[in-house]
Amino acid sequence: MVLQLRGFVKGLILVIVVFLLPLHVNAHKKDEQNHSEEGQERITPSGGLYQLPIINPAPDFVLVDLNGERVSLKDLKDKIKVVNFIYTSCSSTCPIVTRRLSSLQQVLKRKGLLGEKVEIISISLDPERDTTRQLKRYADGFRAGSENWLFLRGTLKQTKRVLSDYDIWIKKADDGTIDHVMRVYLIDGKNRIREIYNLAFLQPELVVRDIEMVLSEN
């Protein structure tokens, strides 16, 4: 009788473990996913709308555009900025991001937002190789409008400062490739970071919706 009772208890424990273990694993995976999707949370008030929280003030910078003109965030104070970091010899995420920003550019044009209310900014993280000429060739390859999509570069010291300020880490390999984190920042007209997109969330429709939401606050 005792042996039968012990067998029943062991069987019951086994059933409980088998049932609860997948729930624990799925919860753990979901938690990992939430941690990897930085900056993707939205505050949803009543009425089905959502708001983007203010994450941090956007660090200012002074860099040079393709015309040799100095550009800073303060110069574009009242506009929404979509800021990302690329290097022209990149063969992995940079072309994917730039292609999506090219699609974003077209949507913003159709809506009459590009230039008047929104600027796209791509900053080189490899100023030693990304000359002005090389950046222009890269921009032309993606049909990036020169007026409202700025490609910026700085000195090595300036670049390191901007990368540090925006928490963009890079690691150069012997073959010239640069491993780097992919982040695209949505900065409002008061120069505050409102969203940080990773590659999974960098969809033109989503970004435009976020931009329109920020514009509706004014």
Secondary structure category: alpha+beta
Element order, helices and strands?
Answer: HEEEEHEHEHEEEEH
The low-confidence parts are 1-39, 43-47
Mean pLDDT: 83
Describe the secondary-structure layout.
Layout: H1 2-36, E1 56-57, E2 62-64, E3 70-72, E4 80-86, H2 93-110, E5 118-124, H3 132-141, E6 149-152, H4 156-165, E7 170-172, E8 178-180, E9 184-187, E10 192-197, H5 204-215
Helix pairs in contact: 2-5
Characterization of this structure:
The protein is α+β, with helices and mostly antiparallel strands. Helices cover 39% and strands 19% of the residues. It has five helices and ten strands; from the N terminus they run H-E-E-E-E-H-E-H-E-H-E-E-E-E-H. The protein has helices at residues 2-36, 93-110, 132-141, 156-165, 204-215; strands at residues 56-57, 62-64, 70-72, 80-86, 118-124, 149-152, 170-172, 178-180, 184-187, 192-197. The strands form three sheets. A six-stranded mixed sheet has the order 1-10-9-4-5-6, with helices on one face. A two-stranded antiparallel sheet has the order 2-3. A two-stranded antiparallel ribbon has the order 7-8. The protein is globular. The model is unreliable at 1-39 and 43-47 (pLDDT under 50).
What key attributes describe this structure?
single chain, 218 residues, alpha+beta, six-stranded mixed sheet, two-stranded antiparallel sheet, 10 strands, globular
Summarize the structure.
With 218 residues, the protein is of the alpha+beta class. Helices cover 39% and strands 19% of the residues. A hairpin with a 5-residue loop joins strand 7 (170-172) and strand 8 (178-180).
